[in-house]
Amino acid sequence: PRRAGATLPTCYVRPPARARPPRPPRAVALSANRGGAALTADGKKLFVFGGMDRQKRYDDCFLLDTTKFRWTIPDVTGQIPAPRANHTATLAGDKLYIIGGYGGTGYSRVMFNDVHVMDTNTFEFTKLAVTGTVPDPRANHVTVCVRESLYVLGGRSFTDVYEDLYIFDLEENKWTKDAGVTSAEPCYNHTGIACMAVPTWKAFFFGGRHGSYDKDQDTRKYSDQITVLDADKMTWLQPSIAGEAPPAREDSIMVYDSKNSRMVMIGGWADQMYNDVHTLDVSMIVGPPYAISGL
């Protein structure tokens, strides 16, 4: 109880601080405009490696968090691939595989057929000691992942355009060449993706430049073809394709929309830049989404 005549102590109450809007994450820009970089996705992250511009070839790595749309530069260590462009970057689990490409340090002009792998948890690169029938050095090829293997189709060197298919076993680090499976024509700058399907895995390829060239003739042309490989039976399928095909082009991007069983083709080049988007329903080839929910 308070004594008579006592004065209550003065009490000060600090008003709550005004809430500040969150600061947007600091954007980290790519170090330069570039072409020929390799990009691949891992859930909500996009990895970019390499590329080139008119003055320089790059061996840097960038990471885009698609939940925040923020670029970061990971601290990459280990046996980092030489600067290059027109290589492939393919994810298998938590490992990122860099295969082939064109470039080199300084002004060197090198076609590569090496294989490097980066652990996406530690960002450490290792150059693999491979065995088997190694592909010729090349760039502008396509690499897709099928279970524990990488399938490499086509590409070009300084003098040749390839139609061959090589398979890289990720457990044994061993190359094999499937002489019975080739593309209909030599091809490069095409795009491709593989997906789990019922009852066998399928690999889809689109567009590119088809044909070959030498000092006497040039038969290359832009392509609008869709080709499908049964990756388990190692046979080409001949699906009936309806609708209006995208105009012939190279350097497109293709992604697989598993929820709707469709391929999405984006942009490309054929003497002009394309920014269009086309979709192809492939449910009759891969099976509807519910058909593979239990695998």
Short description:
The chain is mainly β and 295 residues long. It contains one helix and 25 strands. It has one helix at 283-286, and strands at residues 38-42, 45-52, 57-65, 70-72, 77-78, 84-85, 88-92, 95-103, 110-119, 124-127, 131-132, 142-146, 149-156, 161-169, 174-182, 187-188, 191-195, 202-206, 209-210, 221-222, 226-230, 235-237, 253-257, 262-269, 273-281.
Write the layout of secondary structure elements.
Layout: E1 38-42, E2 45-52, E3 57-65, E4 70-72, E5 77-78, E6 84-85, E7 88-92, E8 95-103, E9 110-119, E10 124-127, E11 131-132, E12 142-146, E13 149-156, E14 161-169, E15 174-182, E16 187-188, E17 191-195, E18 202-206, E19 209-210, E20 221-222, E21 226-230, E22 235-237, E23 253-257, E24 262-269, E25 273-281, H1 283-286
Parallel strand pairs: 5-10, 11-15
Antiparallel strand pairs: 1-2, 2-3, 3-4, 6-8, 7-8, 8-9, 9-10, 12-13, 13-14, 14-15, 16-19, 17-18, 18-21, 19-20, 21-22, 23-24, 24-25
Helix and strand pattern: EEEEEEEEEEEEEEEEEEEEEEEEEH
Query: Into which percent range does the helicity of residues fall?
Result: under 10%
For the biggest sheet, the summary is: 6 strands, mixed
Percent strand equals over 45%
**Residue runs with pLDDT of under 50 for 5 or more positions:** 1-17, 19-26, 291-295
N-to-C span:
74 Å
Coarse morphology? globular
Mean pLDDT: 88
Calculate Rg over CA atoms: 25 Å
Q: Give me the number of helical elements.
A: 1
How many strand segments? 25
Q: From the helix content, strand content and strand pairing, which structural class follows?
A: mainly beta
